[in-house]
Each structure stands twice: as C-alpha cells, then as structure tokens.
Amino acid sequence: MEKRELKEITLKSGETLILREPDAEDAEAIIEYLNIIGGETDNLLFGRGELNLTVEQEAEYIKKVRNDPNRLMILGIINGQIVAIAQISCLHGRRVWHNSELAISVRKAFWRKGIGSTLMQELIFFAKNHKLIRNISLGVRASNHTAISLYEKFGFVKTGVHKNYFCINGEYDDEYIMDLYLEK
Ligand SMILES: CC(C)(COP(=O)(O)OP(=O)(O)OC[C@H]1O[C@@H](n2cnc3c(N)ncnc32)[C@H](O)[C@@H]1OP(=O)(O)O)[C@@H](O)C(=O)NCCC(=O)NCCS
Fold first, then answer.
1. Distances from the Cα of 116 to the Cαs of 86, 113, 120, 134, 147, in angstroms?
2. How far, in Å, is the centroid of ligand 1 from the Cα of 102?
3. Is any ligand 1 atom within 6 A of the Cβ of residue 35?
4. Is any atom of ligand 1 closer than 6 Å to the C-beta of 106?
5. Which of 26, 59, 94, 102 has the lowest tally of Cβ within 10 angstroms?
6. What's the pLDDT tens digit per position in 68-90?
7. Domains of the chain with CATH codes
C-alpha cells in the first residue's frame, strides 16, 4: 500500500502542523521526544529515562516501519520540533493480521490544540483504506479520561479490562481495551 505523503495543517491556534513519516535521520530527535514525554505523563508504558534506545536501534526500527505496508508511523512537527508521534500496526500472522494496534502521544505544551484528533484521523484513514485492517485496538489506562474521550470521539468502544495492568509509582491501575470495528 502507498504511504500518504506529507501534509500541512493550520491548527486553530494558527500554528502550522506538518505531518510526515519519519526517516532514519529522525532517530535522535525521536529518542529525545520519547524521553521528554515519558517524564511529562504517567499515562504511557514508560517513564522518564526508562527507554534505553540507541540512535542505531531507533534508525533500524524506523526503516523497518517505513518498509512495512502494514504499519504507519506519523510525526507531528511544529517549527521543526517533533510535538507528536502516532503509529498503527497490523498484528503478525495470517489469522490475526486484520487486527491493528494504535498508539499516540502529544507533547504536553501542545495538548488541546487538536493535534491528537488530527493524528487519529490520519491513522483511521490509513486503516479504512488498508486492504487487511478491519479492527483497530488500543490499551489505555483506566484513569486516562482525556485519552478515553479522544478515542470515544472517534467511535472506539470499551471491550475489555485488564485488572491492575499498570503499576505506576506503586499504584495499580486497570487497562481498558478499546476497539474500533471498521465497516468494510
Ligand atoms: C491524549 C492526547 C494524545 C490528546 O492529544 P491532544 O492533542 O491534546 O488532543 P486534542 O486537542 O485533539 O483533543 C482531542 C479530544 O481529547 C479530549 N480531551 C483533550 N483534552 C482533554 C481534557 N483536558 N479533558 C477532557 N477531554 C480532553 C476531548 O474529547 C478532545 O476533543 P474536543 O477538543 O473535540 O473536545 C494527549 O493528551 C497525550 O499525549 N497525553 C499523554 C499520552 C497519552 O495519554 N497517550 C495515550 C495513551 S493510551
């Protein structure tokens, strides 16, 4: 499948958001981004300094994703700085590869500007136009009301719970599984 080309969007704040797929040269900036957002929120699978990725490992990963028609990674860029990353990937294996998984994050200083919604639209567009994908799944911390309302806005429904899935600073929290079934 053809990957979508670069896009420029004017946000309601007037800022220009560029959406594009990453290149291997983005590896260092992506690692920096991940380390920053890990410390900005307790709603991700990793905290500050918990990712020990080298630039080479990240560059390899980016190349793999770019060459895989069953995956899409999008960077959101404002003034040359990565402010958001979102990704969708099909599961592996013929019996389950019509299911995909989605992940999204936005830098805290850029929340509530519509960037999360813009990225969700792009990922859902990709899924709807992909020959395999019939379901998008994600896992979200039960107390992450912001993300849950974002997902509900796009039609995701809660389909399950992993009890005490997260342990963050010694506190357990459930994970909700949410799904969007695509009409095809
Ligand atoms: C969740 C996240 C991606 C939302 O990104 P964003 O760019 O702020 O999202 P948007 O500005 O497009 O807002 C989208 C919707 O989210 C919901 N939302 C956003 N901020 C909210 C808030 N403070 N309270 C309640 N709902 C909120 C609303 O439904 C909003 O839609 P609306 O503006 O039409 O009302 C962002 O907060 C984030 O990266 N959080 C940390 C990482 C994370 O939690 N990722 C998800 C892990 S599962």
1. 9, 8, 6, 22, 9
2. 15
3. no
4. yes
5. 94
6. 999 999 999 999 999 999 999 99
7. 7-133 (3.40.630.30)
